Amino acid sequence: MPFRSTTDTRFSESFRERPSTEAIPALTVLSHPDVHRVGARVPLPRLTIGEVVELSRNEPLFAQPEGGRPRGLGISFISRKPLRLTSSPSDFLLERADSSTPVQVDGRPLDQRVTLSLDEVRRGVVIELGRRVVLLFHHCPAVPEKGPHFGLVGASAAVEKLRREIALAAGDDVSVLLRGASGTGKELVARAVHEAGARRKGPWVAVNMAAVPPSLAAAELFGSQRGAFTGADRERPGYFGAAHGGTLFLDEIGDTPAEVQPLLLRALENGEVQPVGGAQSRRVDVRVIAATDVDLETRIADGRFRTPLLHRLAGFEIRLPTLAERRDDIGCLLIHFLERELGGLRPLAEAADAAEERPWPPAPVVAALAAYSWPGNVRQLANVARRLALALRAGREIELDALRSWLHEPSEGVPSPAADPEPRAVSGPPEVQPSHKRPADPGSPTGRWRPVFRQASDVDEEELLRALRAARFRLAPAAEALGVSRTVLYKLIDECPRVRKASDLDREDIERALADHPDEATAAQSLEVSLHGLRLRMHALGLR
Description:
The chain is α+β, with helices and mostly antiparallel strands. It contains 20 helices and 19 strands. The protein has a 6-stranded antiparallel sheet with strand order 2-1-10-9-6-7. It has a 5-stranded parallel sheet with strand order 12-13-16-11-17. The protein is globular. The chain starts with 11 loop residues before the first helix and ends with a helix.
């Protein structure tokens, strides 16, 4: 869970008496050609029994994550004729009605209608519209929280609850125990508690307790005097001494060696430490925040962890949510990580006029990410985003099978939805697909349509050039027109001496074209490169 800024504790009192908010159905944007729309949400508080919500290009109106006028999705690939979402006492019914929009519901085509159980909506149902927009149909708080942000990315109910608990913990000076699965961001939350608390001007010291050798534990934790043992050439303060006046973060506390636990317990009980080789103990003023991804109660039952130590550490407990519990944050988190990898939001927004070529994963990829169970949580998403950024920067097509391998899934199909083992019954005829496509193998568990592409040998230079010029050298529509995959199109371009790449342009070529034409679009057309490619090359040469 990314941490980007600090917040004062002035707001902590506002959370103390705040009642929990009622959860209501909502639609949240996970992917949109305009990346600034990701995170936009429309709560559906009036979705009472039998009431219908219409979902189309123009409605409902989604509130922007950063404020501003609520807007519809506004994508031409989504029909103005709406889908219909109807509530019943036990489930929801999503119907195509007269809409021609291609729809996928949790990775499966919607032909006429699908029934969504209340449990499925609580987990979050991924809805892909027109292969351009991904929505999550889920539950969210009826009243959004208004309080400190703590630099945490996301607006899910789970993250809002976490923010409330950070505010409460920051307002006191007791020890804090963070519990959560690996990859949920425990150290970042610990930093948020430190930065928001009264000790924020004091030192921050982080220690991995699993890595502290038992033979050196006393010296590492409490310091040592010069000459106390071989190699002790100077006085060392130890971790407690280094954190005096601030916060000591003890990560992996559940893996603390048995020999170290009584030493640690004594320091927490008395607030005193005795350096190795020292004659007297000394007091230290340290706030301890500990974290673990193991079940401490089980370790206590097994005799591997001390009950008094747990009681001392758990003055205040915070449980961190898994990524599967905050799936409505996946779009915002993905943007956050891609911004970091790609060097800012500008490259993501730069090609808003050419959605097929913008450096942003296509909607089916985001839908697959939203449906995945994420055993490695936010850390795993950050790693996947790094690989996505490498592919996007290189202009490579992102294949779902490749994505599956990154997620360590079986090679066939797309990532499976979390906790959704039963296929849904879908009625009606299959959608009509472009002529160069056909259905998947009937044995495929997804039943998705798979492209039947031409080979590179089937396309000659003249046909390639005609398709590129007609598409204004945008690769996605050119590949679609030729009926080839993006991989084959790259091969054709590499082997054709008559095609010039934007990366081959020099400063003089670009300056001459800009001087001869009224705008960048026509300059790109004269240079026979895509507008997006021209802009990236201009950026690389310092021309914009």
